Amino acid sequence: MHQNRADWRNRSQFMGVAAQLMRRLLVDHARRRAAAKRGASSVMLDDARHSDARLSRGADIGNAEQILAVNEALARLGQLDPQQARVVELRYFCGLSVEEAAAAMGISPRTVKRDWAMAKAWLRAQLASGASA
Q1: Residue 53: what are its φ and ψ, rounded to 5°?
Q2: For the segment 104-124, what is each residue's pLDDT rounded down to a tens digit?
């Protein structure tokens, strides 16, 4: 991927790529864990910074099925509302605050809060129903 040749245009581009890479890493790790161990639990999206801090530390990365379910639901959300999906990537997978995500996306914090609230509600409904694409 030639990271040594990356020509970042701005912080927004960098943060977007970082969030996508974090998501991919966590999903790959979760797939490996799920192959070794099966289980179920609920996904909590309320405290993105706490969730991501726990995830990024690697300590008790949580239930692999959780991460895979969020990833699948997030892919569906991305087809419906790419901006909301990006907010989730930045907040849940990258651990950015509302203000940091707003700056990275070039939108207002109020818009990030609205998109985050709507995306969480949509994702919860998808995860609770076990919906698939």
Answers
A1: -60, -45
A2: 999 999 999 999 999 999 999
